[in-house]
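User: I need a structural model of DUF3768 domain-containing protein from Novosphingobium nitrogenifigens DSM 19370 for a docking pre-check later this week. Nothing fancy, just the predicted C-alpha cells so I can convert them on my end. Input:
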Amino acid sequence: MLTTATPAGADARLEQIARLNDRTRLGLDRSARVVITRNCLERLAEAEGAPEETIVLQARLMAAFRHCTFSEDSPERDFAAIEFLGRKVWMKIDYYDAAMEFGSEDPADASITTRVMTILLPEDY
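Assistant: Understood. Predicted C-alpha cells for DUF3768 domain-containing protein:
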C-alpha cells in the first residue's frame, strides 16, 4: 500500500478549517449563515413524532448536528449525514468571501470567509 504524507502546514490548515467548521455547526460563529431547505423542513414536519412548531423542529435538527460524527473522508468536517425522524438528513458547509459573491480564497482564514451551513435531504442536492 502506497501512502503519501501531507506537509505539516497542510495538516495544520485542515485542522484550522475543521475547527472553524465546528464553530459554525455548534452555532458559535456569529458571521455564519444557516440554511435549511424548504423541502427538508416540510418533509420532516410530516414525520411521525415531529414537533408541531417549526422553530422547535429547527432547534432539534440543529442540536442533532451538534452531536454528529464525521467520516474519514471529511477531514474538514464540512459534511455529515444523520438519521433524524426516520429520514436521512445531510449537512454541508461551504465557504464564501465576506460579500458572499464568490468562494473564499482561504477557508482557513475566518477574517475573509463567511461560512454557510446548509441542511438538506439527499433529494435536495
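Before docking, keep this in mind: The two ends are 34 Å apart (CA to CA).
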